[in-house]
């Protein structure tokens, strides 16, 4: 049996795990649920001896305290970790990877039997035992990672996100395989984002939030818990979550005699619908070329300086300075680059003079996307023969 008591881990000043306690029996599947950054991977690494637990923490395997064991010593106690990303040796064959898993002393005497058991659990590995692992699919590589961990003859198998990057079909096959592993008497501690499938095969589960265990129950109870559904299952069973009614896309104009938003806040639901983003020509916003804008800015600046007495010459006798030729060339290059990158329709031959001049007679303005604020839809609760529905209020 694996048991953690008051397990805490720090990364510098960051408190990654705070007093976590859990247990897992052989032949039992226990799932750890939690959002990204909750500390799930840190929990497995701390148990596996990869990160150091704080003073006062306890990790027990069959009553033996292994809190300060190093990683290779932890494996000898019967714990095996399949890390996120698999950690397999891509340049080696399937058989070579599996054989490396039997390196611990506890597994050497049973290496042949363990190998036969794993190749029976994963028939595809038997067919491809001489294949280079990096040439295999993601699902097959995950089988190699699980098989290599099982070659150490563990009593508890810990898996960190085993379904990451796998297709739905491969995920289903993987979870079925984990059920078969459980039947061999191996306990499984599973960290998994796919809460629905992991709870479906699990016996119990823990909910981890910000480094703390905030919930523990049987897997069936967690599956039906409204808070767990809303946080991790997305109300996937089709039932309202936390008392919220289903929203139907039925448009009904409110009677003019009834104000549009009368009733309690619970009678309404609001859905934000993004508006389309129409394209408009830049000439509708600004018709001048960039160089003309610069010249105008120079004129305004000069006028302000003269008005403030910074320039002694009268404004009427001194023409406003123009942008220099180097600046004009740069501005023209900017304009041309903008046309090349942003225009939907490139200039036609009729708009361009001879190749020597390189000027565009009819300037074509770039297209500017205008982002409008979202449109708000309001729904009101209505009674129907089938129960409460939400009807869109036309305003």
Report on the biggest sheet: 6 strands, mixed
Number of strands: 16
Shape: extended
Strands of the widest sheet, in order across it, are: 6-7-8-3-9-10
At the fold tier of CATH, the topology name of the largest domain is Rossmann fold
Summary keywords:
6-stranded mixed beta sheet; 3 domains; 4-stranded antiparallel beta sheet; 13 helices; extended; Rossmann fold; 395 residues; alpha/beta; 16 strands
Q: How would you characterize the overall build of this protein?
A:
A 6-stranded mixed β-sheet has the order 6-7-8-3-9-10, with helices on both faces. Strands 2-1-4-5 form a 4-stranded antiparallel β-sheet, covered by helices on one side. A hairpin with a 2-residue loop joins strand 1 (2-11) and strand 2 (14-24). The chain has helices at 40-47, 71-76, 94-100, 105-108, 111-121, 123-127, 138-150, 168-183, 195-201, 219-224, 226-233, 290-307, 325-342, and strands at residues 2-11, 14-24, 29-33, 58-61, 64-65, 79-82, 156-160, 187-191, 204-209, 212-218, 247-253, 268-273, 279-281, 367-369, 375-384, 387-394. It has 3 domains: 2-233, P-loop containing nucleotide triphosphate hydrolases (Rossmann fold), CATH 3.40.50; 247-275 and 373-394, no CATH class; 287-346, no CATH class. Helix 3 (94-100) runs parallel beside helix 7. It contains 13 helices and 16 strands. Mean pLDDT is 75; it is low at 236-266, 275-280, 311-318 and 344-358.
